[in-house]
Design a protein that fits this description.
The structure holds two protein chains of two kinds. By secondary structure, chain A is an alpha/beta fold. Helices cover about 40% and strands about 20% of the residues of chain A. In chain A, helix 2 crosses helix 9, helix 5 packs parallel to helix 6 and helix 7 packs parallel to helix 8. The chains are: A alpha/beta, B mainly alpha.
């Protein structure tokens, strides 16, 4: 056999095996709903992505054989996102895209695949087959702000911030207002690390904050590195997104936990029942989307009581973390006495409240 | 101990054999890895390397993903041939994307056929200028271009962030860090309707042909080769080493900048902080896998793009970890360098005298 024919034979063989496998893959049960998840980090980050994956597992536990779930992790928010979402849209029924940067790619793909349902987290573009969902993490920030203000001895609280987007700025403001309500001399030291997940950078930021005299660390990044440093250095910290007690058994005061499971189950339930429709959900402590881990014994009982009553107040609607009088950082008035912040203003928040030092990076 | 001796004659067939054997060894390596991960190895290899080629979607995405890799690698290969080690293509790419994108945004809402050419020109020039920084420092002060160009990458990425969080932020975007979407005349035309495959790929093919011509039929190609293989001989030809350094950085930076603007005006369509995704670094593997030859780079660019797309498909369909793509690329470079060493050097065992 000449070389030319050998080459052709090999190509045919590969294609033959190929089509055989393809026929194997595409034999699927139409009653099984395929649910896909696009993650911005690795599922092992023990933070943001980890909790979304816990939500996916909750869906599997609840619906068992009736659903098939898949995920793609560490999908960059650049040009790759649209491909990954399209890849899923070709044979999935419902797709959760779990990071802000997926907003435009999700909208683009949703226009091409109008039979497929999409749910985009933390964004603002909605259409007939794209729903939005996010959590009112600032309610959790209010609670940990109370704890931080009550626990700090040095009156300096460190804050490891990711990106200067409204979500993060809102968290800083909520935590500061709560902390200063308990402890008027409290001071926030904020470090911007410009990443959601970079254990090295987050650890460096935690060390720098401790060097500046901080004894309580809050973070709005996804890794457990700051908690690990707090444990090593003997200061306190709050877990972020998931319960980080295993990384800081002595350091952790509590954690804000993102609990996506109930929401995901509800949406998949609606998909199966055929009642899914595009909606805009901003859940908080009341819906269980935001939870608090067990509060450490290091927190004085009077503060624990304060936190519990604040939590009850937020759930019942009697307390809003942003209730006037509140001034902006430059001293101008934002909310007058008793006035409550509108959701629209909170969603686009781009200013610090009075008392927070520093400038928002631009 | 082992001893490496340079071979006098290098087998001509090594141009094909080295990359092919490196690819073969890498495939065997991941085959074993899949078995250890408890996945069906032939099915996994099929999903990664064959299935994307069986659909219009797969091929169109291959075109999208390989375009920046090929264009950047062409520029890199030019410098690598001359012995100029520009590792900062990622930064030059980012600057090109930023300046090209900013140009499109600056003329908003004006539109017209002139818009993209202007943006492309701005991107090429700014990419080349950014590349000139390590070039000038090397020529004037003999600094290490590897370090300087790499460090400037991080400067470029932070500069992009600063712009997207600041002046270029979408005024109607609720303060989120994204520019507004480019309007239609700021977007590259699509080749196949219904896909993302854009004319940037045709530009890449054109550049492959141009680079082939430049390297084989033009004096510049000859000087580049002389510079890399025998810097002393270059001096006798009347060209200075500095001229070659500048030229390498201008071409590499310019092409990386072009790749950047193609990416933002093609698949992305706006400026976002996540524009740099490592193309500038993956292109180094592409350049070497393609043996610094334009046609080789074209094929290598397609293969590396395939690993990204197939790796993602394997993740979704088989639950394989995302790291598989990176592992394959790393192992590929490892075997490539090893195979290179075997063809260029004779390896022999030398007796060791034990001291007592």
């Amino acid at each position: 056999m000449s070389k030319k024919y050998l080459g052709a034979f090999i190509v045919l063989l590969i294609l033959g095996v190929g089509f055989y496998y393809q026929s194997q893959i595409t034999t699927e049960d139409n009653n099984v709903k395929k649910i896909g998840f696009i993650y911005v980090g690795p599922v092992t980050d023990f933070g943001w992505t980890y909790e979304h994956d816990q939500g996916r597992k909750a869906v599997v536990n609840r619906f068992g054989e009736n659903v098939e779930t898949t995920y793609a992790e560490s999908v960059s928010e650049g040009p790759d996102a649209e491909r990954a979402i399209t890849q899923m849209a070709r044979d999935h029924d419902l797709i959760f895209t779990t990071s802000f940067g997926y907003m435009n790619p999700t909208s683009k793909v949703a226009k091409k695949f109008d039979k497929v349902k999409f749910e985009h987290a933390t964004g603002y573009q909605r259409s007939d087959n794209v729903a939005n969902y996010a959590a009112r993490f600032y309610e959790g920030r209010h609670l940990i702000g109370l704890i931080a203000g009550g626990v700090t001895q040095t009156n300096k609280i460190g804050y490891i911030a990711s990106f200067p987007i409204p979500e993060v700025i809102r968290g800083i403001n909520a935590a500061y207002l709560a902390a200063s309500s308990v402890n008027p001399t409290v001071e926030f030291k904020i470090i911007w690390v410009n990443t959601w997940f970079d254990p090295g950078k987050e650890a460096d930021a935690a060390k720098a904050l401790i060097d500046q005299g901080v004894d309580v660390i809050m973070q709005h990044t996804d890794s457990a590195a700051p908690m690990t440093i707090a444990q090593e250095e003997g200061v306190h910290a709050f877990g972020q997104a998931s319960n980080m007690i295993q990384f800081g058994p002595d350091a952790q005061l509590t954690s804000i936990i993102d609990n996506w499971g109930p929401y995901y189950i509800d949406r998949v339930q609606k998909l199966i029942a055929g009642t899914w429709s595009s909606s805009d959900t901003w859940g908080g402590l009341d819906s269980g989307m935001v939870e608090l881990a067990d509060i450490s014994d290091d927190v004085p009982q009077v503060i624990v009581n304060l936190v519990n009553s604040a939590r009850d107040g937020i759930i019942s609607g009697n307390l809003h973390p942003f209730t006037g009088p509140i001034n902006k950082q430059d001293g101008s008035s934002w909310l007058s006495e008793g006035e409550v912040a509108q959701d629209g203003v909170l969603l686009g928040m781009d200013f610090y409240v009075e008392g927070v030092d520093g400038v928002i990076p631009n | 101990m082992f001893k490496l001796e340079k071979k006098a004659n290098i087998d001509k067939s090594s141009v094909f054999m080295v990359p092919l054997s490196a690819i073969g060894c890498s495939l065997i390596f991941v085959f074993i890895l899949f078995i250890l991960l408890g996945k069906n190895p032939t099915l996994a290899l099929f999903i990664i390397f064959i299935e994307p080629l069986l659909s219009v979607f797969g091929i169109s995405e291959l075109i999208v993903k390989s375009t920046p890799l090929i264009i950047i690698a062409l520029g890199l290969s030019f410098g690598f041939r001359a012995g100029v080690w520009n590792i900062g293509a990622e930064g030059q790419y980012t600057i090109g994307a930023l300046s090209g994108g900013a140009t499109i945004l600056a003329f908003y809402p004006m539109s017209g056929l002139w818009l993209l050419p202007v943006a492309f020109l701005v991107a090429i020039i700014s990419g080349a200028l950014w590349g000139m920084i390590p070039g000038i420092l090397k020529a004037k002060f003999n600094t290490n271009e590897i370090l300087v160009s790499l460090m400037l990458t991080y400067v470029a990425i932070l500069f992009l962030s600063a712009m997207v969080y600041g002046p270029l932020k979408d005024p109607d975007g609720f303060n989120f860090p994204e520019s507004r979407l480019f309007h239609d005349s700021g977007i590259l035309p699509i080749i196949f309707h219904g896909t993302r495959a854009h004319v940037g790929f045709l530009i890449a093919i054109f550049l492959v042909v141009m680079m082939h011509f430049l390297l084989t039929r033009h004096m510049v190609g000859f000087f580049i080769k002389v510079s890399g293989e025998s810097p002393r001989a270059l001096l006798f030809s009347g060209k200075s080493r500095n001229q070659i350094i500048y030229l390498s950085f201008i071409i590499c930076g310019g092409l990386a900048g072009l790749a950047g603007v193609i990416e933002v005006s093609g698949p992305i369509g706006q400026l976002v902080p996540a524009i740099p995704v490592g193309y500038g670094f993956t292109a180094i593997i592409v350049a070497f896998l393609g043996r610094l030859n334009p046609v080789g780079i074209f094929l290598a660019g397609l293969l590396l793009a395939l690993t990204y797309i197939g790796g993602e498909a394997a993740q979704i369909k088989l639950g394989l970890p995302n790291a598989i793509t990176g592992v394959f690329q790393g192992v590929l470079l490892f075997f490539l360098l090893a195979a290179d060493a075997y063809t260029k050097y004779k390896i022999s065992l030398v007796n060791i005298r034990w001291k007592i």
